[in-house]
User: What shape does this take?
Amino acid sequence: MKIRTLAAALVALILAAAPAARASAADGTGSVTVTVKDNYGVLPGTVVRLVAKDGQAAGRANADGTGVARFTSLAAGEYTVKASLTGFADIEKAGVTVGTTEEKVELVMSLTRFSTNVTVTTANRREELLMNTAEPTTVIDQVQILDTGARNAKDLLSEQQGSGVQVNVGGGQGYVSLNGVSNKGVLVMIDGRRYLGRDANGNFNLEDLPITGVERVEVVKGAGSAIYGSDAMGGVINFITVKGKNNGFKNTLNFSGGTYNDYRADDNLTYRADKGGFALTAGYRTYDGFDLNPVVCVLPGGDPATCTPRPPNPQTVGQPESQWQTITGNADYRLSDKLTFNFIGDYSNRDIDNYYFSGATQLSTTVYNSQRKLERYNLTPELNFTPGKNTTINLSYLYGRYNRDETQLYTNRPSNPKVVVPTWTESNDELKARLLQVWRAAGREHPFQVGFEHRKEQLSRSGLTGCVPGQACLKDRDLNVIWAQQEFALTRDLKVTAGFRYDDSSDYGTQTSPKLAGVYSLPKNNRLRVSYGKGFRAPYFGELFLVSPGFQGNPLLEPEKSETITGGWAYTGPKFEGSLDAYQSKISNSIVFAQLSPVLFTYNNVSKFDAKGVNVSFALNLRYGFSPSVAYTYTKRVDDKGVEIGGFPRHAAFVKLLWANQRHGLRANIRGNLSGKVPQSVGATTYTPAYNLWNAQASKKVTSKGKYAFTIYAQVNNMFDKQDIYNVNAQGVPVTTDVLPIWNAPRTYLAGITIDADWTR
Assistant: This one.
């Protein structure tokens, strides 16, 4: 009896104690200590987050001076530890079990460019690891953008010289080319949406694209028409904007100022909650520009006091005075477990004073300065439907508009000195539907995509072929598209991609663009890749129909076509990154500028030319925070008669030496663009001699305590003040011209401050 009584009392005691024990656990008695480091030491300032198994935020802390973040009073259970630090790839560790004792976790982070976890979305229109892409792809991440201090797309991409990216900076403009394919054959996008705003001749000016709010840039080299259509026969450049990642608010405010009254202010605000979030960025820049016209002699090396000046010219020879305003934003909201609504939009305008117009100095009757206003906006509502774990359906509509207003002020006309140029209005409406189905076979995933697109392009302007003089008229083009792409994981190490696109246009009939690519993974993060594709570019409306003084469009132009093959090797490791790619593009029906008379120009199709070359790059992650990198490209373009085509340097390179001390928040770099000589035209006897430009920047994180961080920075561009780069003849003697072929900004200085406020959980 006593035994039974004792047992009953014991059971009662246990049952009574159980709720207390559960309460104690619920109150939180566990703790987690996280140490964050890289291959060379601890990483103070790293943001460490703790997430419960149900997805709820359980804590946030900044790693202290020893690289340690501590979490206490945690309820028992499983957690995921996440760490993020600017310049390093995000890392996480799941399955951290918390009980009544201290759990210790160590996370080893990698610099972004040395991480195997970098993801891209442009190459195959879906998220995938960069190391698994068959197409040569360059990623310019947020840290690299900050290291350049770039103000617009031209400044940023100019520092990719040597990686197959080449930027022409003549005429106060920035024209980009990829692997020897000119500006017109390169598709520029923002968040995967076609970016409007080419000039009358179809060239896209990178000066007009601010990079406020841009998180990274993906550059895909090689024929991209199989999934992107016209304009992508040379490749794709996709500017991807910042998006909120963690629950709560985060705000980044930047102010800077420099030489030539170059001032910029921009602000980026992000918010994330359980069902959705948004990101909003606004920016403003004003710039006085620089003018090389008044003080530069016709021939280099002369005494400015006695040399022969250039003829009178009211236009800016260099960079015109400008003001930019831009707003970009994106938002998403989860309507249900399977349905999400997204909205993406951007707006920008640029006011330009004294714009340079190429060729105007050659004709005394057309000498004027130009006042321009460029305005763009794109709006895209989107629905993402996920009926099953492996199925996604995307529906989107793009509403894009571009307006260019211009006033010409003539200096040599006794009457009618002011002319208002007819407004240029370009529109692009796209309706897209896409299905992504990931099916499994042999234990591996095989993504399949199929899409339909309808696009309507329009140009409204007076002064177009076939229109009543003085009256605005409309030129338009309708396109209906079906495309499909299948990726096969044939083995654990071999992936093959086959794609096909069918374009049906109202003015050029049908175009087909096939694609075949493969990537083979070798041991230790080495990989081989090869791709083949065909592309095309439909003539731009200005090339076809524009009528203006000195120019007559050609409505008989045929689409340009390309056939491209690339192959190469790449490696990514914690201390070394390298790649080597060779390419050859055969371009037919190439559209080139042609002279009809001494004062009249047009465009014509020419037969064929080949662009071939090699891109080599490598970067090292050395001790004590040093990280050097080098990129080199060899490009040769010849026509079907074997005559070299001008406009591109055969040899170009980009070098960078970065030093970073994470413990003290210090970063410094020096960067150099090296360009070989450039023939000026087909079979030309004149060329631009080789030159190089050097830039540098240093930054210091003044404080990083709690939710706030302040960073100051300073930079100098064109350190050695390289300016006058004249054409020379075959004997190396400078050629007398009234304008410079390359107008580098004189040495400039800039300083700024960045304020980060992080209220995310």
